[in-house]
Design a protein that fits this description.
- The protein has 655 residues and is an alpha/beta fold.
- The chain is built from 23 helices and 28 strands.
- The chain folds into 4 domains: 208 residues, ANL, N-terminal domain (Rossmann fold, 3-Layer(aba) Sandwich); 99 residues, no CATH class; 70 residues, Roll (Luciferase, domain 3); 178 residues, GMP Synthetase, Chain A, domain 3 (2-Layer Sandwich).
- Strands 4-3-5-6-7 form a 5-stranded parallel sheet, with helices on both faces.
- Helix 6 links the parallel strand 5 and strand 6.
- The longest helix is centred in the middle third of the chain and has 22 residues.
């Protein structure tokens, strides 16, 4: 009975923090690498730091219900800021640190932030720019003091000094803080996170303590997560996935969250930590595989031969061994030898030697990429989620992992498929409270019974109960001849190749499919260097005849694969071009979570799409771009359009 009462009392993140101090006080809670050295805090120390910061917020005058924006990289003090905001019954609103001032202005103005925690001088400058352009006024707390000496500090405070004020707080502030903490309810707001905005302005998703804690509890039990796990917190703090892993599940289970020094050291820090629980979007896994393939191209003949031989055997038996299925003694022994020689060192090199549970989500991952990691013995699984669901809608149980589904409904989640449109709907305790200041969108997304429309088309397999996602419902359509069109299916196959960073496929309501491609500058640049090919810019390399020939071969191979799919064999690509620039979030072509904004691209590159369908062999274009410092410029280019030979469908060949 006492255990049940204790569980029932865990109705907020601050309550979980207090529980962790009592149960895991001297166990590591957080690490951060700074100046090449790992700094560590146990749960008792974390609780003390957060309390000091919460008292500091009270001394600044933070009122209940006010919004506190947090902008910066993954650092313990930024996570502490979110929990401290909850303690004083304010609402934490993390914002993408790479947002330009205009994007930041929208979020700060929309949520009505009164206080902003900034990671460094760059973020402070953007907030000041927003303040000057909008007339809004913020009290700013900054983490890194470098470069801040000559600023007007009438509304600026160093986070370290705010914490010192909290540590020296008078008794009255302690009593007020305790009162606020005690008054936090299970259905009170835990955090507000903004959607990526693939189809318009980002929406503020209000998530309650119930949403976050129930989801964290059930999914931690699903994967048997304990306080012994280690994770690396490197994804944007404004993304719901980072919040659920680095705050929700971390505070529920009591495991350790590790923050890398910066983006450049992330891979080194990943290898040093060796996380046991790891999440990454497909782009990360694609990049890691590309780096492995580049290194193999640079290796000697013997190493390349060994790698190919080992990989072929891994693909044959690796997934079966991982799922505990029967494998012959000879194959098992051979796998063990290759694991000692190849798989083990490779996993150690990419930081995956200790991964017990790994997930990918956000976009569909290419089947070949997914199979590569599982063949090495890495327990990589897929999950399907949304910000509005507190991440989890469906996930793959151990032993039931496939590359063509996203698994079964997560614990506590109900899923249904619309009979007419095929759209996926769900409901659970993780379903968001509302969109902030947007009752119309709330009503159109969540019905009175709590069912949420995902905007994705899919179906549930009757035999297995697994959910299969086809594509975004608005993107799935038909070709002019009535055959199904699902661009993401083809794009994921294209992105398996290390030379292809991004792909956008067109064809809805048209006679055939075409595509834009982005080259991966790292992979293609490495190839150019090995072949003594000089180039002066991304644009020049992207248009090189040998690069175009290589990509044409890859597209042809994808067409062969697509043609074998009964439902989607109409999606073979007949013409393509290689864009003269990378698709970029700063140019509005992608979201901050690297999702393609198809409507923006279709409008911005309408001249290129027209050329793909009017028989042109080349097209001249001028494109506006945004530089890192915010200045605008333009790129001019003449792009070559390549044609592919038609692929015979299996049924046609049989005839």
């Amino acid at each position: 009975m006492e255990g049940d009462k204790a569980q029932a009392a865990l109705t907020s993140i601050p309550a979980l923090l207090a529980r962790n101090v009592a149960q895991y006080g001297h166990r590591l809670a957080m690490r951060e690498k700074e100046f090449g050295i790992w700094q560590s805090w146990n749960w008792t120390q974390v609780a003390e730091e957060i309390r000091h910061l919460a008292l500091g917020f009270l001394s600044l005058g933070v009122k209940e219900g006010q919004h506190i924006a947090i902008i910066g990289r993954n650092r313990p003090m930024h996570y502490w800021s979110m929990v401290a905001a909850q303690m004083v019954r304010a609402v934490p609103v993390p914002i993408y640190q790479d947002s330009v001032a205009e994007e930041m202005a929208y979020v700060l103005e929309h949520c009505g932030a009164s206080y902003v925690v900034c990671g460094d001088q760059e973020q402070v400058d953007k907030v000041i720019e927003v303040s000057e352009s909008t007339g809004l006024h913020f009290d700013v707390v900054y983490t890194d003091k470098r470069g801040m000496r000559r600023y007007d500090h009438s509304h600026l405070n160093a986070l370290e000094e705010v914490m010192e004020q909290g540590a020296a707080a008078i008794t009255g502030l302690h009593e007020e803080l305790d009162r606020r903490i005690a008054s936090i309810g299970y259905d009170d707001i835990c955090v507000m996170l903004y959607t990526s905005g693939t189809t318009g302005r980002p929406k503020g998703v209000v998530l309650s303590n119930r949403n976050i804690i129930e989801t964290s509890k059930r999914t931690a039990e699903f994967d048997h997560l304990t306080h012994r796990e280690e994770i690396l917190a490197y994804l944007p703090m404004a993304w719901v996935g980072d919040f659920i892993f680095s705050v929700g599940q971390a505070f529920w289970t009591g495991f350790c969250v590790n923050c890398p020094e910066n983006g450049e050291t992330m891979m080194t820090d990943l290898r040093e930590i060796g996380p046991t629980y790891y999440f990454a979007p497909p782009r990360i896994f694609e990049t890691l595989l590309t780096n492995v393939q580049i290194r193999m191209e640079d290796a000697g003949p013997l190493k390349r031969w060994m790698f190919k031989r080992a990989l072929a055997h891994a693909r044959k038996v690796g997934p079966q061994l991982l799922d505990g299925k029967s494998v012959g003694l000879g194959d098992r022994m051979a796998y063990g030898v290759w694991n000692f020689l190849i798989y083990g060192p490779l996993k150690d090199a990419i930081g995956f030697s200790r991964v017990r549970v790994g997930y990918t989500a956000g976009e569909a991952i290419g089947p070949e990429i997914f199979a590569f990691y599982r063949s090495l013995g890495i327990n990589l699984k897929q999950l399907y989620g949304q910000t509005e669901a507190s991440v989890f809608i469906a996930q793959q149980p151990d032993g039931m992992v496939r590359d063509d589904t996203v698994g079964v409904p997560s614990p506590g989640v109900e899923i249904r498929i619309d009979d007419v449109s095929g759209e996926v709907f769900y409901r659970s305790d993780g379903v968001f409270v509302k969109y902030y200041k947007n009752p119309e969108s709330t009503a159109s997304t969540k019905d009175p019974e709590g069912w949420v429309a995902t905007g994705d088309a899919g179906f549930i397999e009757q035999a297995t109960g697994h959910l299969r996602i086809i594509d975004r419902a608005k993107d799935v359509g038909k070709l002019a001849d009535g055959r199904m069109f699902a661009p993401k299916f083809v794009e994921n196959k294209l992105k398996f190749y290390p030379e292809i960073l991004e792909a956008v496929v067109f064809g809805k309501d048209r006679d055939y499919c075409t595509a834009f491609l982005n080259i991966d500058l790292t992979a293609v640049g490495n190839w150019a260097e090995r072949n003594n090919i000089a180039y002066a810019s991304y644009q020049e390399l992207a248009g090189h005849p040998l690069v175009l020939e290589t990509l044409q071969k890859h597209v042809a191979e994808v067409n062969e694969s697509v043609a074998r799919d009964e439902k989607l064999n109409g999606c073979t690509i007949q013409r393509f071009l290689v864009l003269h620039k990378e698709l970029d979030a700063d140019d509005g072509e992608m979201t901050r979570t690297r999702k393609v904004r198809r409507v923006v691209i279709a409008d911005k590159y309408a001249d290129l799409i027209t050329a793909l369908y009017d028989g042109s062999t080349s097209v001249y274009t001028e494109t506006e771009v945004t530089y890192e410092d915010g200045r605008k410029g333009s790129i001019k280019a003449t792009l070559e359009i390549r044609d592919l030979e038609p692929v015979a469908m299996p049924s046609m060949a049989a005839e």
